[in-house]
Design goal:
Order of helices and strands: EHEHHHEHEHEEEHEH
Structural class: alpha/beta
Number of strands: 8
Bound molecules: zinc ion
Helix content: 40-55%
Strand order of the largest sheet: 2-3-1-4-8
Radius of gyration: 19 Å
Shape: globular
CATH topology of one domain: Rossmann fold
Strand content: 5-15%
Distance between the termini: 20 Å
CATH superfamily of one domain: P-loop containing nucleotide triphosphate hydrolases
Length: 231
């Protein structure tokens, strides 16, 4: 099974990917992680991505897709040598129509297809509240939230005593700009997948556990998968 998890920054997508992946015994394909590990591994693709980063540009679709395909091949290899992963959960990919086309072709070439697209919906004002409430320790990097997870003493890190600050890209204005970009990029993708009947919307403005349950149920209902994956 191949499931895409979509959601803007602040929707809890990263957290949910990890939880849902574990619950349903899926491998994850997260492009951010693929980029980092390719760079670290010093592969040909890794060096190309490093060069893109050095120029301060976004990783182009062809490189991103090449990494995803490499990972799909590796997973297939692992499966043929006994791994029992039940499918793949995509996080942060596809991000553009071009990437979506490439994914469709890559799956088709492997005799597989997309199973479902889960969209985590959170009202924009809640996203801005969550993201602009973010504070970071300038010394050790511990992340806080003024609403949900504040430091014990105002602006002082619990861990190291460093000063807890708001980063420039976490101001409401900067956050709003990033959310606009997400909307522009992904709205056409959601539309396309909706037309194919693949999109399931999950209300992400609830406690983490409830959101996880809804996502798991949504995926299980589309795959007709029994809740066999140990709860
Ligand atoms: Zn600290």
């Amino acid at each position: 099974m191949h499931v895409i998890l979509m959601g803007p920054q602040g929707s809890g997508k990263g957290t949910q990917t990890e939880r849902v992946r574990t619950r349903l015994n899926l491998a994850s394909i997260a492009t951010g992680e693929l980029f980092r590990s390719a760079i670290k591994g010093g592969t040909g693709l890794g060096r190309q991505i490093q060069a893109v980063y050095d120029r301060g540009e976004l990783v182009p679709d062809d490189l991103t897709v090449a990494l995803v395909e490499e990972r799909l091949d590796k997973l297939a290899q692992e499966r043929s040598s006994g791994s029992t992963v039940d499918g793949v959960l995509y996080d942060g990919f596809p991000r553009t129509i071009g990437q979506a086309d490439a994914l469709r072709q890559a799956l088709c070439a492997r005799g597989e297809e997309l199973t479902a697209v889960v969209a985590i919906d959170v009202p924009r004002e809640r996203l801005i509240e969550r993201l602009s409430g973010r504070r970071v320790c300038s010394t050790c990097g511990r992340v806080y939230n003024v609403v949900s997870d504040p430091p014990k003493a105002d602006s002082i890190c619990d861990v190291c005593g460093g000063s807890v600050i708001q980063r420039a890209d976490d101001t409401p204005e900067a956050v709003s700009k990033r959310l606009d970009l997400y909307d522009v990029e992904t709205a056409p993708l959601v539309d396309r997948y909706s037309n194919q009947g693949l999109v399931i919307h999950v209300d992400g403005d609830r406690p983490i556990d409830e959101v996880t349950e809804s996502i798991v149920e949504a995926i299980q209902s589309t795959t007709g998968l029994a809740a066999a994956s140990g709860r």
